[in-house]
Amino acid sequence: MARFIKRFSELSGTMNISRFLIPVTTFLYAQAAIAQDMPIGQWQSHLPYNTAVSIASDGYRVFVATQHSFYIRSVDDETTPFSKVSGMSDMGMSKIAYDDLTGSVILAYQNSNIDLYRDGVFYNIPDLKLKSVAGTKRINNIMTDNGLAYLSTDIGVVVLNLSRNEIKETYTFTKNSQNIPVTDFEANGNYFYAATTEGLYRAPKNSANLQAFQAWTLMDTTRIFTTIASTSDKLFMAMRDSLFVLSADTFQHLYTSDSSIKNLQKGLGSVWVMEIDNSTFRGKARRMNMDYFFTDSLNTGNSYELIDIDPNPDSVKWISNSSGVLQIRKGKGEPYNTIPPDGPGDVTNYDVYVQDKEILIAHGSYDDRYNPLNNGSGFSVYTQGTWKNYRQYIYPPFGDSVVDFVNIIKGNDGSIYAGSTQSGLFVLKADGSYEYYKQNSFINTSSTGTTLYRISGLAFDNDGVLWATILGGNPNELVARTPNGQWYQFSLPFSRNIPHSAAHLIVDDNNQKWFAAPGGGGVIVFDDNRTPENPLDDQYIQLLAGEGSGGLPDNEVYCLANDKTGSIWIGTANGIGIVNCPSQVIQRQCEAEKRVVQFDQFAGYLFQNEQVRAIAVDGANRKWIGTNNGVWLVSPNGDEIIERFTKDNSPLPSDIIQKISIDPKTGDVYIGTELGLVSYRGTATDGGEENSELITYPNPVPSGYSGTIAIKGFVENADVRITDISGQLIYRTTALGGQAVWNGKDYTGRRPQSGVYLIFGTNRDGTQTVKGKMVFME
Question: Domains in the chain, please, with CATH?
Fold first, then answer.
């Protein structure tokens, strides 16, 4: 299977999307409300915009770089968000700058990739990212001047020609044959100044060859300045807690702070000094005039940068900090938070639940050894077109101690059930009231920590009983709550590396509970015989690797899924095992199958040598597989690869996949990666037992449309036929679950003439029929 996957990786390389020039207008509708219909194959991003790391301005708009994305905000509080879906080439911002001459926004990423945004188009400059050098290539700061951008990096100063969208030249500084990192760069008078980790360098702007290290003069080695700013012909510089100005080639000390100076920002006839208190970590912005007196002071939280939107006495000032962007209007007093574009509360998405266009995200996490990571972002809910985040400190019931939600589901009564790997079970009811189960409840403290109440899986069975697994339950790793509120606990006698460990819970068609035993304990199957109150009729079995022991590909299990035929798909550290007869597994009459698949001339076990982290089943019983190498869509039996998506050929933020969930009504596939959540409009939806009203998109089909046409509302796997008005057959297919897709061409490969076309759908025995219409436009 290793060779099999390698070959498909090579084949899928032909799907790479060019990022060198992408018009934003192509993608803007993907940022619209999730409820809107959109074409098959369209992507949407669901990213947080609440953590600003850098800002810039053109005098009318502020450009905000966040940890994961980028957005534009106007003085009138209108926002336009962007992501890889809308043309950005990468994820993880570090710096942003604006050039007046070319109207370019320069976007610098943490991995040294560079985008330019100008006139609604993104231009990618990947050269620095791709450059092979010893050490790091981090971009520390950006200065623009006369159509050029000077990037202070760990390998020197990289100069961009913004009108040509290319690197013009690089100024390197060396010591003992090693590159000296540049932390900031400025122009002042007739000179360029570079703040480096070895001191401040200067060179005349008109030097014949600024790329030659000999053109630069080291001005001072006793002070290592980390940030510099030029304003009103004065050059200011700061180191640790001290501020200096360069006057007549002499460094004049101006000020020593009781805080750390993090950044200097030029203003109109002034310089802004951004400080962080070393004990409280609160930020402060102070403005110094050209007489070296402080004239303004703003307490702004953990602020790092400030910029004047309009350099006049009535200006609006914007400050980026760790909580987002603050806005200060003259005469309005203290700064107030501006509202970022709508989005979830955090980029982490360990669990995602979707149903009928509602999205629930659990923002907690733990590492591969199941140690909690203390994420206080809680969980986020998207409903009726709006996101709401329930997080530590902000949502009163959580206070300061409820963290690391790793499971989330919704009950038939509208209640949201969120399980934490530290803080027990939280139930948010439809009316806004809540229940909280931790100490003095049915949940035992974990054997891995006496103060931890570690929910690791949640699922409802066919009788409406809520089941929860506990990681390291002491001693009960499985609990159940019946619809009438009765709780029951279960302890199973199987040896595991983590005692009484359980996670990744699902319920099969036979009401059996399947869960992984973390730490190499395989899978445990438990049957309470639909009588949780009676332990005497319980049955259970442990499935491990090896023939006769369970047949799993590996004992480390990451995920489980129940498909449309009732088979159980098990994702492990070494591929996938499939239990095709789950009703017989406890009687030891059935084991997992390691399916052999064929691709071209290569055969191997299904996803052998791949860590399978997520499996989801769509309406056509196809499997969406998440690994550490992206996402795969395979046929119902796994013997055909239909799609493969990676961060290089799609808007996936990362190839590290944590969760995949599918909305059965829309066919949207939600893919949770380590760097954020995106969704993809798939071709399959769940089919019902009866037909419903047919919905066709687009309808009418506009002239020149070459995308996929989707028709949904059929019974499962219906026979679908499209004819002209006289009854002549144009196209015939089988619905993918409850949805049929068509490329808009007849059997000759031609687009039908304009007019009305009829749609007919029939189930397998002909007892269920439905019909509809669609229109092709000239």
Answer: 49-337 (2.130.10.10), 351-681 (2.130.10.10), 695-776 (2.60.40.3110)
